[in-house]
Amino acid sequence: xxxxxxxxxxxxxxxxxxxxxxxxxxxxxxxxxxxxxxxxxxxxxxxxxxxxxxxxxxxxxxxxxxxxxxxxxxxxxxxxxxxxxxxxxxxxxxxxxxxxxxxxxxxxxxxxxxxxxxxxxxxxxxxxxxxxxxxxxxxxxxxxxxxxxxxxxxxxxxxxx
Length: 161
Known about the structure:
It is a single chain. β6 (117-123) and β7 (126-131) form a beta hairpin. The protein is built from one helix and ten strands. By secondary structure, it is mainly beta.
């Protein structure tokens, strides 16, 4: 079995060198790591929970006058439409501020540019500054400080300028 420290180091090297695939083989181990490239969207699969069939009630006859036609509802605009996600470039721990006694890097409503540091992600005792890489306004901060995050997990939702 591969040592988890070695695996984490390989992932860190992939991210640092912007590699999308790594394939290592020797007499005892074979390791193949893949991550989405710049043109690919990450694919996340969640196990589906079995769903029980909903009980069906027997139809009840109603007088014709009591049945009203369904009202036409105007489609509501999705407030999250058009937002860009800033994703975690690695597996680690999310920190919203440089230290517990310091203010957060960004708050909801802050204007940011591509070079703005929005958070830290700690991986293997190394604190990595995460830059926005997009200009806009912070609409939502998804994880709480101290939460574990996965590669490709959305951290912030940004409304572009």
